[in-house]
Amino acid sequence: MRDAVTTLIRNYDLTGRYLDRDAMANLKSYFESGTDRISVAALINANSPVIVKEAGLQLFEEVPELIRPGGNAYTTRRYSACLRDMDYYLRYASYALVAGDPTVLDERVLQGLRETYNSLGVPIAPTVRGIQIMKEKIKAMAADAGVEDTSFVDEPFDHMSREFSEISV
């Protein structure tokens, strides 16, 4: 699994360059946010069932046709699958938060789901909205816990949302 440090070094190594000011600034930023990244990952770990449940409830309140007959979350099995997937995204987002590199999501989450969601006809817009709701909840929890700059939380969730949004269903 790559992280911000190995990715940066790899990119500079591939081009045969020494680490420059930009690289050093990126490394400094990553290390300065390290404690906050771990704090947020711990918040996610301790509260994941609540985050997923509340995000699911908010999503189904915003898009009620999902849980109506014929909707993609209609029936207990489909509803549970939706929440399971949200938990899956949350878990991998926490890995990417700690790593400081959202590309870990590409191989571990996004590649396999593209084909699966296309074949099952899973609507992408509600999936993206669910991911964004979880991000909003985590940022609020982090701010309540004293994390001043929560901007790093955006990266993995926005990466997943962007990648899912490119899927044509």
TrEMBL record:
InterPro entries: Allophycocyanin_b, Globin-like_sf, Phycobilisome_asu/bsu, Phycobilisome_asu/bsu_sf. The keyword Metal-binding does not apply. Keywords: Antenna complex, Bile pigment, Chromophore, Electron transport, Membrane, Methylation, Photosynthesis, Phycobilisome, Thylakoid, Transport. (2R,3E)-phycocyanobilin binds at N72, R77, C82. It is a peripheral membrane protein. It is found in: Cellular thylakoid membrane; Membrane. It holds the Pfam family Phycobilisome. The modification N4-methylasparagine is found at N72. GO terms for cellular component: phycobilisome; plasma membrane-derived thylakoid membrane. SUPFAM superfamilies: Globin-like. GO terms for biological process: photosynthesis. Belongs to the phycobiliprotein family. This is Phycobilisome core component. It comes from Crocosphaera subtropica (strain ATCC 51142 / BH68). The gene is apcF.
